[in-house]
Amino acid sequence: LDDLERFAASGETLQGILEAAQPSVWFVVTRDEAGQPSVASGFVVFSDAAQSFLLTSYAAVRTNTQEPAPGITIRKGGEELRATLARWDPATDLALLTVDRPSLPALTWAAVDPPAQVGDRVFVVSGLGGSGGAISQGFVAGVSAEGLQHDAPVGVAYQGGPLVNSRGEV
Known about the structure:
By secondary structure, the chain is mainly β. The chain is built from three helices and ten strands, in the order H-H-E-E-E-H-E-E-E-E-E-E-E. The strands form two sheets. The protein has a six-stranded antiparallel beta barrel. The protein is globular. The mean pLDDT is 90.
């Protein structure tokens, strides 16, 4: 049964992973070059007594690298926080945001040993959803020095959100 459980995540499993990740995952809102809404998800990677840091998709927030910048807001439920684009890397589609909210809960990073394997179950988490988040599942299809290739569907609301294992680790 252990092998079967690896491949078939139940609704209970999905809900448990979503509930564990949800406090750290936010919905990111800004504008694109045409002034249209540009959205993504982001997740807390570190926080201290002064601020919190979130990773998101560079593609979603790239207009904030130019002046005048449209500004970035992160949302969760009825709460909205103003975010600042601190660093970005277009080559890896990563952007680091900061918010003036201390001690937001950060997600845990997965240990590199043992490394992810082809066939491992993975989950993408979004900051948008009826309950304040959404989750979708897939498998690791390839592992390389550049990262993991997976088949979990990553739509607009999921881009920039975390890819987690069955323990909820990034």
